[in-house]
Structure formats: structure tokens, C-alpha cells
Amino acid sequence: MSDTILYEVDEKRKIATITINKPEKLNCLRFSEFQELGNLLEEPQADDRVKVIIFRGEGKAFCAGADVSTLATDMGYGSGEKKPNVKKKRASQRAKLRSDDKTSFGPRGMIQSIMGCNKATIAQVHGYAYGAGFHIALACDITIAAEGCMFSHAGYRLMGPSAEGSAIPLMMIVGPKRAMEMMLTGRPIESKEAERLGIVNKVVPLNKLEGEVQRYAETIALLSLDGIVIGKYATRCALDRMGYFGYMPVVLHNLGTNIVWDDEDFNWFKENRDLGTTEAIRKRERRYAALGMDLESARKAAGIE
After folding, report:
1. Is it the case that residue 83 has pLDDT exceeding 80?
2. Which DSSP helix (H) or strand (E) runs through 233?
3. Position 63 pLDDT exceeds 60
4. How far apart are CA 143 and CA 234, in angstroms?
5. pLDDT above 80 (res 231)
6. Are 133 and 57 in contact (CB under 8 A)?
7. DSSP β-ladder status, 52-57 and 15-20
8. Do residues 64 and 28 make contact, with C-beta atoms less than 8 angstroms apart?
9. How far out from the chain centre does Cα 305 lie?
10. Residues near 302 by beta carbon (within 8 Å), at least 6 away in sequence
């Protein structure tokens, strides 16, 4: 296990904690680190000492998504001196069905591993829950967020209304109309709006977040292990019949990474390559600022200084 994904078990309280530990990058992860997180989930699911799993982030954010400084090259894009550091995977490779395929894209990927986990899961969210961080918040059984936390997915402003595996859980939680609004505009939403939409179960001040998450975890741990595991499988059976799981992440990832951008479109991969990550993000947000749909406008509307 690396220093990026930390894992500990409180055997007495029957609670496991998975911490994303990359605070210098707001806990943005590379694809290999998402796979590490997905693989790690096998451990608490097989451990009878664990009834509840808490997902948390170190530092100023829960998880701000993929590490965009390496996103283009990780996905096989590059030109000139900035060549890809990995070869872009074939569509058939992304659709692998092996049980150890825990990347973000497969039908047994990291997010679906959380959704199908046989132990109770809680997301302890603060700062930013963007991209895969937003996916984790959607995938967990319970999400408790600090005031002022922002939720969105940068992929909505790259690929449009899909951002891979989030569409179905998002639609089931907030409904098709609200989901399409979020995915078509990419508008960031603050914790209290996320609570109203059902994305978040409870919002608390930041200084009370950890204590409230622990209170929920201890309450759940009062149940029998069998009761939790059997109950989780039963609810997952119902969700499976409604299409909660499946192959959509594979299809959407393959389509999304083969989008053709016109000259006037904002092509993240090109801008990131030519301008660098920070300036590319600023340029993207300037396109939305005049419409009041950028992150800064969303923060001001929510009363966040």
C-alpha cells in the first residue's frame, strides 16, 4: 500500500477508515491511484472485524477528482515534446471483466466497487467533492458534508452530460431534470443545495464533521455483521434491477475520449497541453464567469468567502 491511500481498522468499534492522502493536490488522484483504492476495498469486505467503512480526505478537500496535470498523458494525448507517458488503451482493454480491474472505467471499477460494497459506507466530505470525489459521495450509503463544500464534475464541461459512471446514480438520487441541469451546465453546487437534492444526507459545520461521521458510524456498528452484509446485498439486488450497476461507464468512457472538438470549442486536452493545468482551468472558468456559472460565482451565491 502506498502513502497516498491510507487504511486503518478500529477493531473495537468495528470501523475502517480509508483516507485519500494527497493534500498538496487537493487529493486529486492518478488512474493508478484510483485502481489502488478500488483494490483496497477487497480488504474490509473480507474482514469480519469491519462493519462500517469511512471515506475521508486529508487536508483542505475530500477529493477534487483526477490529477489533471497528468490526465491528458494518462489517457494517451500529447504532441511535440510532450508525448503521452502511457499508450492510450484500446476500447476492449477498458471493458475488461477481470475481478482485479479496479480502474475508474470498468464495470467492476472503483466507483462500482463502492456501490456494491457489502459493508456500510460513509463519505466524510469537506472542501471539494469534484470528479471522482463527487462519484464517491454519490456511491456511498451515507454522505455527510461540511458547510461550504462544493460538488461538481469537471468532466461535465469536457465531455458533456455523462462524466462516465455518475449519470445513473445521479439521476436516481436527484431525478432526470436536476441531473441533466447539473451535467449540461457543470454548475458547482454547495453542501446545502446538495442536501436539498438528496446528494448529501446531512450538513454540519466543518469543526463538527468528523464527530458527526463517527456518531453515524458507531450507530450503524450497533447492528449485527450479518444484518449489515445481508441487508446490503438485498438492497443492491433491488438497485441492480433498476439499472444502478452495469456497463455504462465503459461505454461512456470510450465515447467521451473520442469526442471531436470544433475549432471554437474548448478542448481541455489541447489547452492543458499548450497552457499548462492552472491556466487551462482559469481559461475554462472564464467562459462561464460572465454567465454566473463558474466556481467563484457559485461560492458567492452560497455565501462562501
Report:
1. no
2. helix 225-241
3. yes
4. 20
5. yes
6. yes
7. parallel
8. yes
9. 25
10. 148, 190, 192, 193
Cell of 305: 468567502
Q: Which helix (H) or strand (E) holds 7?
A: strand 5-10
Distance, CA of 204 to CA of 29 (rounded, Å): 26
Residue 176: how many other CB atoms lie within 10 Å:
11
pTM here? 0.89
Strands of the 52-57 sheet, one edge to the other: 5-10, 15-20, 52-57, 120-125, 142-146, 202-204
Q: Which three cell numbers, joined as nine digits, stand for 249?
A: 461507464
* Lowest mean per-residue pLDDT among 84-93, 213-222, 238-247: 84-93
Q: Which residues are paired to 120 by β-bridges? A: 52
Question: What's the number of CA atoms in the CB half-sphere (13 Å) around residue 18?
Answer: 28
DSSP class per residue in 45-92 = HT-TT-SEEEEEESTT-SB--B-HHHHHHHTT--BTTB--SSPPPPHH
287 CB-near residues (< 8 Å, 6+ apart): 266
> Cβ of 151: how many Cβ atoms within 10 Å?
27
Task: For the chain, give the number of residues.
Answer: 305
Q: Cell match 477528482: residue?
A: 65
Burial 21-59 (b: 16+ CB within 10 A, else e): bbeeebbbbbbebbbbbbbbbeebbeeeebbbbbbbbee
* Domain parsing of the chain, residue ranges: 5-260
Question: 5-260 domain in CATH 3.40.50.300?
Answer: no
Calpha distance 56→21 (Å, rounded)? 9
Per-residue exposure over 281-294, b if at least 16 CB sit within 10 Å of its own CB, e if not: beebeeebeeeebb
Residue that has been written with the C-alpha cell 457489502 in this structure: 118
pLDDT bucket at 260, cuts 50 / 70 / 90: confident
DSSP string, 127-186: SEEETHHHHHHHHSSEEEEETT-EEE-GGGGTT-S-TGGGHHHHHHHH-HHHHHHHHHH-
Q: Distance (Å, rounded) from C-alpha 269 to C-alpha 189?
A: 25
